[in-house]
């Protein structure tokens, strides 16, 4: 019986450690010079086999361009963005994007200040097909923008998430900012319950062993 319980505890704890994670946090509260006044959220919609669906949410209604003052008017736009979960990515597509998926070119690899560059196996990137299709940030944004990525991976467990975004200035006609952020994995409640159950079983076994 003790052997069975020990095996059960190992399985439960392993489920927490290596199971499919489902959410990452919102990056907010960081310095304006880093986050440009916007917030960035990554939600894992599903991870089945090697198919990973992720919502990349960018809320730029308080976009400041690092100045501390909210931008007004059509001043800056989102040109490209990428995300990375520390696992190899072999294919990238978009299921949802501001203005429609046809306005965006998804590809593997990361990005630099000029947009997607195709370098870096862990990354999935999407770049707007025309400057005229860029979603604006600042006071003209009425709702957060959502990109839903479909990434083909090798099926391994996700690590910590990181993301980048390039911003283009309509007024100056050039790229003006790039953010580069990371966020730790946040365990889902189901995983926390499994972990707690596993630890409880282990504690019970240890207590019985000490009493005996």
Could you explain the architecture of this structure?
By secondary structure, the chain is of the alpha+beta class. It folds into 2 domains: 1-21 and 187-212; 22-186, Sandwich (Immunoglobulin-like). The chain contains 3 helices and 13 strands. The strands form 3 sheets. Strands 4, 6, 9, 10, 12 and 13 form a 6-stranded antiparallel sheet that branches. Strands 1-2-3-11-5 form a 5-stranded antiparallel sheet, with no helix packed on it. Helix 1 (2-18) runs antiparallel to helix 3. The relative contact order is 0.24. The model is unreliable at 2-22 and 188-203 (pLDDT under 50).
Strand content: 35-45%
Report the structural category. Answer: alpha+beta
Major beta sheet summary: 6 strands, antiparallel
Number of strands: 13
Q: How is the quaternary structure best described?
A: single chain
Low-pLDDT regions: 2-22, 188-203
Structural Rg: 21 Å
What is the domain tally? 2
Tell me, rounded to a whole number, the average pLDDT: 81
Provide the helix percentage. Answer: 10-25%
Just give the CATH class of the largest domain: Mainly Beta
Strand/helix succession: HEHEEEEEEEEEEEEH
Do you know the CATH topology of the largest domain?
Immunoglobulin-like
Query: Number of helical segments?
Result: 3
How far apart the termini lie comes to 15 Å
Quickly give the CATH architecture of the largest domain: Sandwich
User: What global shape is seen?
Assistant: globular
């Amino acid at each position: 019986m003790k052997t069975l319980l020990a095996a059960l505890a190992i399985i439960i704890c392993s489920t927490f450690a290596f199971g499919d994670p489902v959410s990452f946090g919102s990056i907010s509260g960081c310095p304006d010079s880093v986050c440009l006044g916007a917030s960035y959220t990554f939600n894992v919609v599903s991870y089945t086999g090697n198919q990973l669906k992720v919502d990349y949410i960018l809320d730029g209604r308080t976009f400041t361009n690092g100045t501390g003052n909210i931008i007004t008017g059509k001043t800056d736009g989102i040109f490209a963005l990428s995300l990375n979960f520390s696992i190899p990515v072999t294919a990238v597509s978009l299921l949802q994007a501001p203005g429609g998926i046809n306005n965006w070119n998804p590809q593997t690899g990361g990005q630099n200040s000029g947009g997607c560059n195709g370098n870096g196996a862990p990354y999935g990137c999407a770049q707007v097909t025309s400057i005229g299709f860029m979603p604006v940030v600042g006071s003209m944004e009425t709702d957060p923008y959502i990109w839903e990525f479909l990434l083909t991976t090798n099926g391994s467990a996700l690590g910590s998430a990181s993301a980048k975004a390039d911003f283009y200035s309509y007024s100056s006609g050039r790229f003006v900012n790039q953010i580069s952020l990371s966020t730790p994995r946040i365990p889902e409640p189901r995983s926390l319950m499994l972990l707690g159950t596993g630890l409880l079983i282990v504690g019970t076994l240890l207590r019985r062993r000490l009493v005996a």
